[in-house]
Design a protein that fits this description.
The complex is a heterodimer of chains A (about 220) and B (about 90). Chain A has 10 helices and no strands. With about 220 residues, chain A is mainly alpha-helical. The chains are: A mainly alpha (about 220), B mainly alpha (about 90).
């Protein structure tokens, strides 16, 4: 039986929310000297990483970072509660990702149905995807695995990819993702599940193709 | 375990929709116990769940890209210019 993972094990709570957010927000409202530098030092790395995970390109991620920091800094004075800062920044960053990709919005043309992701009765479901905790230490194996995972994430439609990146990579809570993207909690859960199923399907196909190429042992 | 029911029935399909919530520990205790009982009885669902768990773990273990120092300098410099021109 698989051990069931608790929410706390899967997603460390509120990793970077700092009690200093309120103080920083106050300094930004006053446009105090050095406030922008402090803002960049506090959030720049996280926003850049988010842009990289979503866009996959360094220059795109840099544009996301710059657009987010400038726009956020101009508008942060309107933010009433420092507790909402993280979701608010992710909302600005998500919009910046959209502008980079010129997709317009995160609404999919249609929601992907679960039936499309159900395995067929004939499909071999024996696990082909390697356990990430048991990967060999060779750099080549790890780089190859990373490339497969990156491709699987990059191939997701934007509406699903943004939820996966926020939830499983940035480790935001479902509530924070819902606030950042203006979605209902149920929609976040639905898109996260479909995104994970699509990644699973992509990885499985990738490893199955390798196994077929090797032929019988 | 070989399973005591035919995989692919309505029970398996209904469970398919709940797997992420199960992995995230978000199901209520009754639903969670239902999934666990089904998994004990259905090898294909168990295999599918394990492959999904591994896929999620791969995504979660992707490394976090570092912000290059020169990108940071460029942005601080661009900000200083906009301040100077305003």
């Amino acid at each position: 039986m698989l051990p069931k993972r608790s929410q706390a094990e899967c997603y460390p709570p509120d990793m970077e929310k700092s009690p200093d957010d309120a103080a920083l927000l106050a300094r930004i409202r006053e446009d105090a000297p050095g406030a922008f530098d402090e803002f960049v030092a506090r959030f720049g790395g996280r926003i850049y990483a988010f842009g990289m995970k979503f866009c996959g390109e360094r220059e795109d991620a840099k544009d996301v970072l710059q657009d987010t920091l400038f726009q956020a800094y101009r508008s942060l004075g309107q933010l009433e509660h420092a507790e909402a800062l993280t979701s608010w920044l992710y909302r600005v960053a998500a919009n910046a990702c959209l502008m980079i990709r010129r997709k317009g919005k995160f609404e999919p043309e249609r929601e992907i149905s679960l039936e499309e992701l159900l395995p067929s009765p004939q499909q071999d479901l024996r696990v082909q995807i390697p356990d990430p905790t048991a990967l060999p230490h060779e750099d080549a194996v790890r780089a190859e695995t990373k490339a497969r995972v990156q491709k699987a994430i990059g191939d997701l439609p934007a509406a699903y990819r943004i939820v996966l990146v926020m939830r499983d990579m940035e480790q935001l809570s479902t509530q924070e993702v819902a606030e950042a993207l203006g979605l209902e909690i149920s929609a976040v859960k639905m898109r996260l599940h479909r995104a994970r199923l699509m990644v699973r399907k992509s990885l499985e196909a990738s490893y199955a193709a390798d196994a077929a190429g090797r032929g019988p042992a | 375990m070989n399973g005591r029911h035919a995989h692919g029935g309505p029970e398996c399909v209904a469970l398919f929709a709940k797997l992420s919530e199960f992995l995230d520990g978000e199901l209520d205790p009754t639903a969670c116990a239902g999934v666990e009982a089904h998994m004990a009885d259905c090898e294909r669902c168990r295999d599918f769940l394990e492959s999904l768990r591994r896929a999620v773990a791969h995504v979660a273990s992707m490394e976090t890209p570092e912000l290059p120092e020169h990108f940071k300098r460029d942005i601080l410099s661009a900000y200083a210019k906009t301040r100077g021109s305003s």
